[in-house]
Amino acid sequence: MSKIKLILLTAIFLMVSGCAIEEQQGSTENQQSDNAGKVQETDKSAAFNSNDETDSDKGLAGTVVYVVDGDTFDVQLANGKKERVRMTLVDTPETKHPRLGVQPFGPEASAYTKTLLTDKKVSLEMDVQERDRYGRVLAYVWLNDKLVNEQLIAKGLARVAVFPPNTKYVDRFERVQQKAREQRLGIWSVEDYVTDRGYNAESVKQEKRTAPADDCKIKGNISSSGEKIYHIPGNQSYDITKPEQMFCTKAEAEAAGFRAAKR
Q1: Cα dihedral across residues 223, 227, 230, 236: positive or negative
Q2: What is the spatial distance between Cα 102 and Cα 44, in angstroms, rounded to a whole number?
């Protein structure tokens, strides 16, 4: 009889042990399933939070859809949102200001930016302050590997305008500005036109605006019908053409809205 009891007890022990093992395995499988689910949720969360309009090198990336003037434009980001962008550390003459109106070299700066950036993909690099008091994005604008803010200064179409704390490229820009000033390009061709606070239109006289730098020989003339035409040395009408503006290169003339003379 004791032998039978021993066999029964052994059988019961084995059954209980088996159930415990199965329960432990089930718990382990459930934990693994839960962990796998958490990993999937994490991956989905990371994908959802990825910022499609961010460029890893410079900042926001988008396409220019409208140019307001030389230093301001609208960009459409990858997520479809539109932002108005004001270029940091530069100031071009006005073209649409309600009080100042159209300032000398404002149309040229606007035409240059429009030709350069319209429908182009740009990268927007931020400084310390990301927006101005009007809600516009403040940015250094990169077109491929070219810094557009700097190009405007180099062509004499903008002055360096410092508004701390956004001063990342101020030393670099001021060196470029000094070269443009020495060459009397654009805004620097007019004595006392550029000031620390903007532009002094009262100082502008036509003869000073049209006085070329020694190496700028392309004549920009506006016909009686308002058509803008540029003449290069050797053109039939070059010598008798009285210029409204002088240019150093054909590209500069075309960016300002002038076309080449037919002969």
Answers
A1: negative
A2: 52
Report pLDDT for 50: 35
* CA-angle at 186, arms to 136 and 83, nearest 5°: 15
Per residue in 23-50, pLDDT (tens digit) is 455 444 444 444 444 333 333 333 223 3
**Model confidence pLDDT, tens digit, residues 71-94:** 999 999 988 999 999 999 999 999
Q: 10 Å Cβ neighbour count for 52? A: 9
Phi, psi of 230 (to 5 degrees): -115, 145
Identify the CATH number of the domain defined by range 54-203: 2.40.50.90
Residue type, 24: Q
Q: Where do the structural domains in the chain lie, given as residue ranges?
A: 1-50, 54-203, 212-260
Catalytically active residues, by annotation: 86, 94, 136
Interval 53-68 mean pLDDT: 78
